[in-house]
Write a structure and sequence with these properties.
nine-stranded mixed sheet, Bact_exopeptidase_dim_dom, hydrolase activity, Peptidase_M20, 2 domains
Length: 433
């Protein structure tokens, strides 16, 4: 594996939409699509076939000796949050690309095809809905629910796709058969402090916490700040603040289960210093790997809505943006990753992911593995996000090892070098072969 080339690929892609404030490659913007096209050109230069599906996912394929077999897939995303970091998502894309380049350098042929997948709209920053591309790929995207969603400028999701020349509506055309892939592998920065604190080289993820997201509107009554007594106000902002505090209380009560709740956005209107706010619009995110615990927090949030309505004389309306279920990843892939770590001398920790990833959707249809590399100080979604190239290289070596194992390396006579391992791996439906 050529770590200098890996870093150069990262730098070339990250030149697009980067500034001293961070990365601004929002989903389906010209900048994000430019980065995807640049990646496509890199893949084509390597002799890979490239296609774009209806949702904007880029799929680049290195053919195997038996093209009819299910492919071994790896990748992540290139879109970013507002003023985001330089490692989130893109590291998984460039590591998968470098693994394929490394196979080419070594003249390695594989029995199964290998695919690099760059997913569209993994981040929720623009439209409030995440992992759109992977949901579309497994045929579980709520198309009616997302089509009318708007960004900060009032542009709808469907309009944004049309501007990108993604006119393959409906997005059901992006769905793939369960027979298409043998396994999916994703490498990602941890986005938390656990690995760095423990001095561990990689994390092997066994489960992914799924988000429940709501858009909430608190309707109060505007009035003059100087003439309206405090006990006669219907302040939408204070009602929203109380909802946030009650959400925090509910999540803290579930600390043992790792469930968290966040008010990530609050827009107060009319926004004048001398007017009591009449409207507050919130975006709320609840996450956890324990289904019962997450439901407990959500129910307490609903109770908070009713309590605040009665206490403060406001009206609370809400829309469920998404309610996803936590995902447990394939035990067969977990075991394979552990074996590879031991053979390569890599220290590892089996852990849960508090953040959502495309891997959680892919796991609903195909055996899936997720590899974490450390994040300095646990910082993510920020321009100070950082992972050293030494740490990235360790994860990339593990990823390459797994790709070779699952794709089945062939000798000069076309015979499998790891045929015994192949026989112990699950088939594309996740069952023992």
């Amino acid at each position: 594996m050529n770590l200098e080339r890996l870093e150069q690929t990262w730098r070339e892609l990250n030149q697009i939409a980067y500034s001293d404030k961070g990365v601004m490659r929002l989903a389906y913007t010209p900048q994000e699509r430019q980065a995807v096209r640049r990646l496509a050109a890199m893949c084509e230069a390597r002799g890979m076939s490239v296609r774009m599906d209806a949702s904007g996912n880029l799929i680049a394929r290195r053919e195997g000796k038996e093209p009819h077999l299910p492919a071994v897939a790896s990748g992540s995303h290139l879109d970013a949050v507002f003023e985001g970091g330089s490692y989130d998502g893109i590291i998984g894309v460039v590591a998968a690309f470098e693994a394929i380049c490394s196979l080419d350098d070594q003249g390695i042929a594989t029995k199964h095809p290998i695919e690099l997948i760059c997913f569209a709209c993994e981040e929720s920053s623009r439209f409030g809905v995440s992992t759109v591309g992977s949901k579309a790929m497994i045929g579980e995207l709520d198309i009616d629910g997302v089509s009318g969603l708007q960004d900060r400028d009032g542009k709808t999701f469907r309009e944004a796709l049309a501007e990108c020349s993604l006119n393959g509506w409906p997005l059901t055309e992006a769905a793939r058969s369960a027979k298409d892939l043998k396994v999916f592998l994703e490498m990602h920065i941890e986005q938390g402090p656990v690995l760095e604190s423990a001095g561990i080289q990689v994390g092997i993820v066994h489960g992914i916490a799924a988000p429940t997201r709501l858009q909430v509107r608190v309707q109060g009554k505007a009035s003059h700040t100087g003439t309206t007594p405090m006990d006669q106000r219907h302040d939408a902002f204070l009602a929203a603040a109380e909802i946030g505090l009650l959400l925090e209380e509910a999540a803290l009560a579930e600390k043992a289960h790792g469930t968290v709740g966040t008010v990530g956005a609050c827009v107060v209107k009319p926004g004048a210093m001398n007017v009591v706010p009449d409207t507050a619009e919130l975006k709320i995110d609840i996450r956890g790997t324990d289904v019962t615990s997450k439901a407990t927090v959500l129910n307490k949030l609903y109770a908070a809505f009713r309590y605040v309505e009665e206490k403060r004389g406001v009206k609370v309306e809400w829309t469920m943006l998404s309610d996803e279920q936590p995902v447990l990843l394939s035990e067969d892939v977990l075991d394979s990753l552990e074996r590879s770590c031991r053979s390569l001398g890599i220290s590892y920790l089996k852990m849960a992911s508090g953040a959502g990833h495309d891997a959680m959707n892919m796991a609903r249809r195909w055996p899936t593995g997720l590899i974490f590399v450390p994040s300095k100080d646990g910082v993510s979604h920020h321009r100070e996000e950082y992972t050293s190239w030494e740490q990235i290289g360790v994860g990339a070596r593990l990823l390459e090892e797994e790709i070779k194992k699952w794709a089945v390396v062939l000798d000069a006579d076309g015979r499998p070098l790891n045929e015994e391992e192949e026989g112990s791996q699950p088939n594309q439906m996740g069952e023992s072969a």
